[in-house]
Amino acid sequence: MKRILAQCSKELAQFRRDRLTLSLAFLLPFATLILFSFGVRLESKNINLVIQDFDQTPLSRAYSERFFATTQFDATLWSGSNPARDAIDRGLAKVAIVIPPHFERRINASSSSNVQVLVDGTDVNNARVIANSIVSTTNFFLTNQGLNTSTAKVTADVRLWFNPGRQESLYVVPGVYAVILWIYPSLLAAIAMVREKEQGTIVQVYASSLSAIELTLGKALAYLLIGLLEAVLIVVFGSLIFGLWFAGDPTPFLVGTLVFLLTSVMFGIQIGAVSKEQSVAVQIVSTVGFLTALLLSGFLYPLSNIPFPLSLICYIVPARYYIDISRDAFVQGTGWSGVWAAPIMLGLLCLILFRGTLKTLSRMQLSE
User: Which domains does the chain have, with CATH numbers?
Assistant: First the structure.
């Protein structure tokens, strides 16, 4: 135990002396928190909309104004022979609505009037959101004007249960915690491990009686403490900036964070053990760690949307399980009954990485 603590103390001393590593450990996670939390928006807003009204009646103008009464559409003015089509072709608008002549007269005569809607389909997901918004706004307009021709037999009374205010920060920020706490602790641990080889200090380890387990645990303990400090800082900043707080029992989040950080550090040590240069270690952590945490963890896209066989990789992405813990802690608040399996999976992945690191170090002439 004394050797493990001595190795930990030595790592912390080296960490304090390196200003570049200090900035990597604390400034970049904060910058990542701000960048992702404010930059990632999953709900389309301020969509440029152009309306070509051939009717110019009170009802057609009320219909047009209904779209701009929401926070989703912004008016786009364009003149020409065909402003609706031209505005979309030139990229000035994402959606155009053409109201035909005699719009009000047909409706007052209990007849139907077809309104043309042109949607820019370059972004498929955005186009789907726009189309649904147009339909919803039109239905609301008809109901508000008393123009529904029949009464619905079934009416769904929808209530948003966990996030009634539809705050995107409640969804995005807990996911950002997982990305940050996976990338930076593992990156620091990988750099520290490779530095031993580049500076030649690994020879001193060979000459000593330090075992692979003691070396691994000493480094893991040091960067686990650094990771815990990073976690405290980003959670505090996240709470102050975005108003997040625990929705229920915080103990699953606290336990899950500890296990997740240890898994992240073990991943970094494993990468550092197999790499010969810091640039290689950084590239591996950035590519393998960051991309999987970003795209295959459920942070941005539902896991059910990931096609087979790529979806199989999701089961070995630790960030996937920590996102479940984090979002439950800050949004759902179900506690252990909802996320009990996630810390167990993180623990298993941590043990696998730990065992892999020991095998790698044994090939480097270190005994287990």
Answer: 2-40+167-362 (no CATH), 47-144 (3.40.1710.10)
Q: Which residues contact 175 (CB under 8 A, 6 or more apart)?
A: 297, 298, 299, 300, 323, 326, 327
Contacts of 347 (CB under 8 A, 6+ apart): 259
**Residue-by-residue DSSP string for 133-163:** HHHHHHHHHHHHTT--SS--S-------SS-
Tokens linked to 348:
């298993």
Angle, helix 318-327 to helix 341-362, in steps of 10 degrees = 150
Structure tokens at 71: 């926070």
Tokens 């604390």 belong to 26
- Measured CA to CA, the distance from residue 46 to residue 34 in angstroms comes to 21
User: Measured between alpha carbons, how far is 261 from 178 in angstroms, rounded to an integer?
Assistant: 10
CA 361 to CA 189: how far, in whole Å?
Answer: 15
For the packed helices 318-327 and 169-198, what is the interaxial angle rounded to 10 degrees? Answer: 140
Residue 279 one-letter amino acid:
S
What local confidence, expressed as pLDDT, does residue 262 receive? 95
Residue carrying the six token digits 């979002």? 327
Measuring CA to CA, which residue among 364, 346, 365, 343 is closest to residue 354? 346
From the first residue on, what is the mean pLDDT of each consecutive set of 10 residues in the chain (368 residues)?
80 80 84 86 79 87 85 77 77 86 85 85 80 87 76 68 76 92 92 79 63 82 92 92 88 95 93 86 88 88 84 91 93 89 94 88 60
Distance CA 130, CA 113 (A): 21
Residues 6 or more apart from 365 whose CB is under 8 A from it? Answer: 206
Alpha helix (H) ranges present in the chain? Answer: 2-17, 19-39, 58-68, 83-89, 103-108, 124-144, 169-198, 202-207, 212-242, 251-274, 278-284, 291-295, 318-327, 336-339, 341-362
